[in-house]
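User: Run a structure prediction on this.
Assistant: Running it now.
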Amino acid sequence: MQPGGDRCAPRRGAQRAFWIGQADPITYRPGKGKRGRAPRGRRRTEHRGDFRLDSAHLLELLNQGGLTVYPLAVGSIITLAVFLERLWRYRGIAAGTRALTRETIEALVARDTDRARSLCEKSKQPVAKIFLEAMRWKNVALEDLERVIATSRQEAAIDLKRGVWIVGTIGSLAPYVGLFGTVVGIIRAFGDMAEHGAGGFEVVASGISEALVATAAGLAVAIIALMFFNYLQTRAGAIAGVYARSCERFLQALLFVEAASADREREGAHGQLVPAR
């Protein structure tokens, strides 16, 4: 210590050790760490810079996921197939239902039941079957006719959701399949550690990698499947709402035709038109 200097001032070596975060004064060479190796943080940074997630590396990771990746792959294919099939089924169904309802109601208002029946027979829309079923019933009470239409409409709405439950089931089970792969990978990691009789990251790295890949694959499949499921549920609900409104309008037009027919019958029987009560 120099005369007049501060007793609390650290030595040069200690100051260097303070800045490099070591407890003892160790001299580092430029770009080198203890024992001639690069510092740990710098090695990690350089390793992250060389990491690339391309298609080949992704397939390699999935291959490391073990047997649990194959059920997830099959589930993802089934989910995509059901989603595309339902999209094709829903294509243009709402607009077609509105157009058929409008043309059928115009024919009924014009008291042309034959044309209305012909339109429904030629149409491929599911609501056409509902209209034909309602027009087959004559001289029935309003409550009974409403039940007939409601039953046919429920059957059409159920047909809209055909196969959607498969997508929801896969979305619910995929995380558990991934979790099962995680447990299997961890068990294998500890088994390798017991077999080699020594610990270390090199021993358990394969099992842990399999566990993490299985978890990631399960979560990815679950997220996509739940997105598809919610979309299909919403789309089916919207089309079912179009069915309900179309059936209500058709029922009102059908009641108008029946009331007009009853008026004509009373007019023919008594020679004059009698208002309906």
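Residues 97 and 125 are 6 Å apart (CA to CA).
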